Structure prediction request, 323 residues.
Amino acid sequence: MQGIYPWQKETWQLLYQYRSQERMPHAMLLYGEAETGKRLFARLLAESLLCSAGGEYPCGACHSCRLLQAGNHPDLVEVMPEEPGKAIKVDMVRAYIEDATLTPQIAACRVCIISPADAMNLSASNSLLKTLEEPAPENHLLLVSDRPAQLSATIRSRCQKVAFPRPREEESLAWLQQQNSSADWARLLACSNKLPLRALRFAEGGQEETYGKLQKSFAGLLKGQQQPASLAASWCEVDSGQLLEWLYRWTLDLLRHSQAGAAAMQDTDLMRMISGLPRLPDSVKLVSLLSNITNLGQGLGKRNLNYQLQLESLLISYTESGK
Prediction:
């Protein structure tokens, strides 16, 4: 059984204290950046609540733990989209609410995990709100979200909020070294926004090489060595969410350069690549570009945009900003 990650220990101890004092909240919102381990934490917490031994961690040997390992514990409900990126529909939430009125079948309580909670559509959110206002006894609700602002303020106000901050870099490096001592984790963390679970995924999937190529071509764009149209065409082959995140970070680093000099940049590779350039976009232009990147990312999920054309227009702005 996989335990919690090192950067989650303080949060786990706090919730275990709640459990020991029988002050466990009825509903909790576990929120923070993507890939910080919230989903695994929620699952382990649910297993601990359902375990008959009553210890800090699930014992793995009782009847409840064996059912959890087999994937058919009647007192654990997991609500998630039918497909990644799709909405959680009202029928899924209603099924949980109906079950919540029943007495736990095996364990001392029932637990429901809704992940990602921000995927609930309006009807599902409204339906869940009713059970939050009148919680059923012997029930615990765990909402997991990377984007808690997408949840209604009413739902957020009725949940105990549990934040999952970004791990400290030294803590991340120590854990990653334990996974594979031969990998260049400092470099992988740099291209994974300092998130260790993402760095691990990147190491396994080869995204580090993609990051390096894109960063080099971005520097080439700033130097006038890359044409926006051809660059947009090649960049369209990369996952849009990941590409726009990288582009946002590089632009933010340029803003640091503009305001406080090259030494303020966080990405030393990008700093080296653009060293000696006589002109870079000014602060006003860079702030505007950051807004445009955010708007493009949000628009892709809501409107039928011509992504390549929009990306080309964005890249053209970088070439114009130094003139």
User: Anything to note?
Assistant: The beta strands are 27-32, 76-79, 110-114, 139-145, 160-164.
